[in-house]
Amino acid sequence: MSPDDRVYAYSAVLMGSPILLKLLEHNQPVAAGVFRLIKQQENLLTVNRPDSEVMAINHAAGEHPVVVSQPVFELIARAREISLLEGSCFNFTIGPLVKCWKIGFHGNRVPPAAEIARLLTLTDPRQVILDRQARSVFLPVKGMEIDLGAIAKGDIADRVRDFLRQQQITDALINLGGNVQTLGGMPGSANWGIGLKKPFAGPDDLIGVIGISGKSVVTSGIYERYFELAGQRYHHILNPETGFPLDNELLSVTVISPQSIDGDIFTTLLYGMGVEKGLACLATTPEIEAVFVTKQRQVICSSQRQFNFTLLDSSYQLGR
Ligand code: ADP
Ligand code: MG
Ligand code: MG
Fold first, then answer.
1. What is the number of helices (H) and of strands (E) in the chain?
2. Which residues is 17 bridged to in the sheet?
3. ipTM score for this prediction
4. Which domains does the chain have, with CATH numbers?
5. Bridge-partner residues for 229, per DSSP?
6. Mutate to test the pocket of ligand 1, among 78, 90, 236 (most ligand atoms within 8 A of CB)
7. Could you tell me which of 79, 114, 119, 295 has the fewest CB atoms within 10 Å of its CB?
8. Tens of pLDDT, residues 146-202
9. What residues are neighbours of ligand 2 (ion), with CB under 5 Å?
10. Strand order, beta sheet including 192-197
């Protein structure tokens, strides 16, 4: 490798995920700035520590509205809008169920049906009251909890991209534990190659590689965070209708889009739709493209205007 082909990687663990920044030139101040930005955003949005703005809203449920910062208000407004779409399986008030399953955390368990039924009554996104003038959020029933886990990393990845641009960086990759956003390409290439992970295999085991430039790649899969009990697998994307993990033909969905927040939102939405409905939906959203991986070991790509896909693992087949 010649010096010009070098990639400088910076890593940290934040938001409970490994974070990786790649630059083509060594730039410690920019890397430090990126990690500071991520930390700031995590401090506003996390539900895994008691002192975030989102937790202030959750603690005040059934009591009073909470005034939040503009970016947090906008993110919650977006999450509410997506949750209220016709047939949406995205639900930003899923918090009580996420907390009770504890999937991916210590103490995970299958909650009794009566408990799930009770918690489902606390997850109606229509009940959340947003006041744009006051910039306040109110959860009217005690026990309601906002969870932005399906959208926050996308938003943060876009903020990192914007920050890198401000710093005149032309080629970079940020990976927030599965949410990738990019500028430019790798050394000697117009693109970055993003590995599509092989489900339930080693971290370096790939089904294929997605080539992109200046786009985001977000993957959600049932193999990321899950636990097994009595031969049954329980993963971390919940069906807001039943309170149980979403169950269909999919192992993972990967979304390619200009904005990582859209990728984050759409991985969850498409997960709920499955392949058939998902492809029909994608035909109406030109900026959102996707790669579905099914339990039948099929890899199904939507239109490919923003990316190219190279299959590496012959035990998987390109479908449709
Ligand atoms: P990750 O990138 O951590 O895998 P995803 O973007 O796939 O996360 O979103 C999963 C997270 O979103 C869960 O860990 C939980 O916090 C939250 N969540 C689970 N089910 C839903 C749902 N139906 N709608 C919105 N958020 C959800
Ligand atoms: Mg998501
Ligand atoms: Mg995600």
1. 7, 17
2. 14
3. 0.96
4. 51-138 (1.10.3980.10)
5. 232
6. 236
7. 114
8. 999 999 999 999 999 999 999 999 999 999 998 999 999 999 999 999 999 999 898
9. 150, 264, 267-268
10. 192-197, 206-212, 308-311
